[in-house]
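As a warm-up, study this chain.
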Amino acid sequence: MKGKTLKQLLERILEKNALVGIIGMGYVGLPLVLRFCEEGFRVLGFDVDSVKVDRLRKGRSYLKSIPSSRISQFLRNGLFDVTADFSRLSEPDCILICVPTPLTEKMEPDLQYIEKTTEAIRARLRKGQLIILESTSYPGTTEELILPRLESTGLRVGKDFSLAFSPEREDPGNKRFTTQLIPKVVAGVTASCQKAAVSLYRQIIQKVIPVSSTRVAELTKLLENIYRSVNIALVNELKMLTDRMGIDIWEVIEAASTKPFGFSPFYPGPGMGGHCIPIDPFYLSWKAKEYDFTTRFIQLAGEINVSMPYYVVSKILDALNERKKSIRGSKILILGVAYKKDVDDARESPALAIMDLLQQKGANILYHDPYIPVLPPFRKYQFKLKSSSLTERLLRAMDAVVVVTDHSQIDYPWVVRHAPLIIDTRNVTKNMKQWKKKIVKA
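Now compare it with the structure written out below.
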């Protein structure tokens, strides 16, 4: 975007007169809405879910990490509006795309949400707009998928409109690193696109990091999560080995963590969860095939992490067998179904795979999660279950209690005291040696 058009956009951004449109009112989009509003920008939120839109219009949050009072505050002062009407995409000066990028059943990128969103923007694209993709995808998505569609309007990138990529880095439930404090990687398709995107994010983020191309920015996000996936797979594999060797992997990690250099602790668990680590690495694996390259580390890490729910189930079976109980007909309580502690998000949670495997073997499954009162339908699972109240009577009635998510507000010593058998995948029973006979690490 050149000359007068770019100058006008930059002026609107710096004067905070630019209307910011954010597509996707989820765990990424909604925090961005609040951050822009906090700095005095007007924000128009978009979402295809009319129920979600209606709830937000009433000032009601559906995320535990965001209080309703923050949303209603910006609704009242006129800074925030939300709609399911995508014909209004011509209104914003800056549009941020924050839509899901899941995998297909064949573990290939599912870009339908980016594609549909791009088509909606294309139909209303006007001169002077800045379009930024935040959704995680493979290197090349911005320039290979989005750019040609937008330029099919006859408008030209860097001249008539700006296009950029800036990977989301939200960490729900993390009170130490909020949206404002997490450094933002930004790349534009052209130098002028870069300038516009950097200017926008500098209004709401303390540190903005420009990089040389959108492909670099896209791969940056993937590397962050591949790094975590590979290291978590490593400790998960070591967990299975040390179990056979009679060594406590948690004690090993704690001891290794005393080294002040050259070691960063990662912790084992029941499998991978959330919308990033179980999914993002496979975007690069898929793209690598275009270059006749096999990403062996990524694939191996994925195989190990995907296998962990099966390992947990095998430990449950063994523990019940030792107590002369069959898995068929057993009553099993899953303690925590969120993909990580203290969040209300169960997407890709290993708890879902564990529950499904146990049900297939004939177990009667209940769950308790203070953050997820009802299990919604998921891509692969539909349980139709509600969270059970965590009572002494419930615990005593179970054949086994499986700790899958280590929420902070659960009183684990109390749970262990009343449950007949505990399968611990998160090391919450670390200091409970008095009950070691009914605790099984998994």
